[in-house]
Amino acid sequence: MQAVIQTESLSKNYRGFQAVNQVSLQVNRGEIYGFIGLNGAGKTTMIRMMLGMINPSEGACFINGKHVNLSNYPIWQDVGYIVETPYAYPELTVKENLNIFRRLYGILDPQSVTNILERLNLTRYANKKAKHLSLGNAQRLGIAKALLHHPQILIMDEPVNGLDPAGIVEIRELLQDLAHNHGVTIFISSHLLSEVARTATKIGIIHNGNLHQELSSKELPQLLNQRLHIQTKNLSSTVDLLLQHGYDPHVSQAGTIELHQQKAITSPEQVAQILVQGGHLLTKLSVEQEDLESYFLRIIQEKGDHLHESCIRSNSNRVI
Ligand SMILES: Nc1ncnc2c1ncn2[C@@H]1O[C@H](COP(=O)(O)OP(=O)(O)OP(=O)(O)O)[C@@H](O)[C@H]1O
């Protein structure tokens, strides 16, 4: 089966700085490929190369087997895209913006604009100037523009940026419907790791320009570590008691005791028994799976790569 999107050793070097390094990946029909990475990892650069907006220093991208470059015009008829800040004419209304793109796509029926306004919950903003939209609604306008011509391929940089939680769920369901029920192939980049874990069928992790790891959403649960989380009223004596019984307690900055050993995860009731018999009042005892964000930070740290301090700080409740 021919991949719908394929990159071969795609690289971008900005005057000696390697923003993207030899990234080869493929996305098949109906897949949602979630491309995740920290700020500055190389996501937008990769997407710009995939869309032919910038030339790669090395390598190539193919869409439906056709080499991507700006002159290969027919490719773009089947591609919807959104890159960083949603593109709009600020002085025109939402409806006028969409009508411009409708004509550019050669769509004759004006009803298509009404339909996409409804689908993206933008009908009440139809006559509002684009420059007066909130960030979330500007993002919706960008998505509406990308979907207007019913493309079979969507390439989207941070599509849920600026949306509120309800909007994120709405767009997730929309993308899943397009992929699963209409065979649309979707490539989305995001730094919202948990959101990607919920939406994507395949995940690629980019770090410092390198494709660090690829995994299917089915593989992910097996790779995520489990921990027994314990909260008690008397932290230090609980830790001592657990040490006496051969456990390896780690205390998080949030004051939760975590046990990583298999025996604690498979038999939490034995831990509970030890603590209760030792006179310790438990306020929480639960086996929890690390989320994609913690997994991501763990594998990068295991590889010994440097992480930006603010990134570690922002996840400090998960770093033990
Ligand atoms: N035109 C450019 N000239 C020089 N360096 C650039 C240029 N564009 C991007 N870079 C650098 O390349 C690296 C990757 O940037 P890119 O925008 O692709 O990251 P990103 O993963 O999309 O980050 P974010 O999530 O913050 O948008 C960054 O270090 C950035 O500073």
Automatic annotation (TrEMBL):
It holds the Pfam family ABC_tran. It comes from the Bacteria. One of its GO terms (molecular function) is ATP binding. The keyword Transport applies. Keywords: ATP-binding, Nucleotide-binding, Transport. Residues 5-233 form the ABC transporter domain. PROSITE patterns: ABC_TRANSPORTER_1, ABC_TRANSPORTER_2. PANTHER family: ABC TRANSPORTER, ATP-BINDING PROTEIN. Belongs to the ABC transporter superfamily. This is ABC transporter ATP-binding protein.
